[in-house]
Structure formats: C-alpha cells, structure tokens
Amino acid sequence: MFDDRSPIYLQIADQIKNDIVTGALAEDEQVMSTNQYAAFYRINPATAAKGFAQLVDEGVLYKKRGIGMFVSPNARELLRTGRRDSFFAEVVDPMIREADAIGVPLADVVKHIQNKDGEQ
User: Coiled-coil ranges per the record (predicted)?
Assistant: First the structure.
C-alpha cells in the first residue's frame, strides 16, 4: 500500500483524495477514524492523524464532534479543480512549449489528441 516515494501521511491524504475524486467516497460520507485507519494499515495512529489533519486544513474533510470525520460537501469539485489546474500546469503547458520548440503546430497537436480520443 505505502511506498518510499513520500511520507506516509501524504500518501494517506492522497489516497483519500483519490477516493473522493473517483467517487469511491461521496460527499458527507463518513471516513474511517484515524485509529481504524491505523489499525487496518498497521501504521502509527499519529501518522494517520497527520494525514487526516491535512485534509481538514485543505477543506476536504470535516469533523463532527464525537462522531468522526466526513467528506466535505464541496470536496470532489475542490479536488477536481485543483487537479485540472495541475494537469494544465504540469502536462499541457510543457507539451505546448515542447511542440513550439520543435516546430509542431498547435493544430497538429490538437488533431493528434482528437485522433487518440477516437481510438478509445
């Protein structure tokens, strides 16, 4: 489940975010408690709590006192917007710069993408 690419608490946060984006976790759905999460994945409860705290700080999860943690009502759209912004900044913009550098017209790039879309 976890690897050495980044701290475990960040991997926990990323996994929960991905579950929200894909619809595996719905808005206002309760998530496992930090203790349940820690026991299930055999990690330190403080590590799980740190990942959950980050999600609360980002507005992805919210706490109901005495009940647990829940997915925020706007979490999916918040995360999708952030991923879209990252996608353009990290994937599309560099691709456009490279196409320009090697003399590929943007229209050819768009045509190529549209052809690939039709293959799926």
Answer: none
